[in-house]
Amino acid sequence: MSEKIDFSQIRFLIVDPNPLSTELLYDILRMLGAIAIRKVTDSNKALAVIKAGEVDVMITEWIVEPLSGIELIDTVRNTMHSPNRMLPIIMLTANSEPEYVIEARDRGVTEFLAKPFTVDSLYRRLVSVIARPRSFVNAGTYFGPDRRRRQVPHGGRNRRAD
């Protein structure tokens, strides 16, 4: 935990119907210094908190209702009237198979964290979304954080007309 962040200045939203998960996450955020932490059990309540402009970082479970965590992310990212399309979103779920990670990435999640998780792994995701935010891309069918994690040199012929 090398980078120091003042979590007391950040408003968190936890979206998870499981009270044990929610309390664990709440306790960890408090331990890290967070003060403003909202807990909701469903996606409609989450959208109301986001709409009210009361959140800086959202941490959501995949399995919530009536909209799933993925549909919630999609609504935040792709609704033109969304109050914060660039909201940092961490998907925290036990659904960690590659197809879930890819779908979450392709829907605009900022970071993905599999359950069970460690305090350090959560801290690293929080540092990533707060201290090192990625630029956002609007590519017609995708709006969200740049999905590229590293610069890979192009191996083919350069076809650009410079």
TrEMBL record:
State the source organism's domain of life: Bacteria
Tell me the SMART domains matching this sequence.
REC
Q: Which UniProt keywords apply?
A: Phosphoprotein
The organism's lineage is:
Bacteria, Pseudomonadati, Pseudomonadota, Alphaproteobacteria, Rhodospirillales
Domain Response regulatory as annotated: residue spans: 11-130
Q: Which PANTHER family match?
A: RESPONSE REGULATORY DOMAIN-CONTAINING PROTEIN, STRESS RESPONSE REGULATOR PROTEIN 1
Mind telling me which residue stretches traverse the membrane in this protein?
Answer: none
Residues spanning the signal sequence: none
Q: Name one GO biological process term.
A: phosphorelay signal transduction system
Entry protein name = Response regulator receiver protein
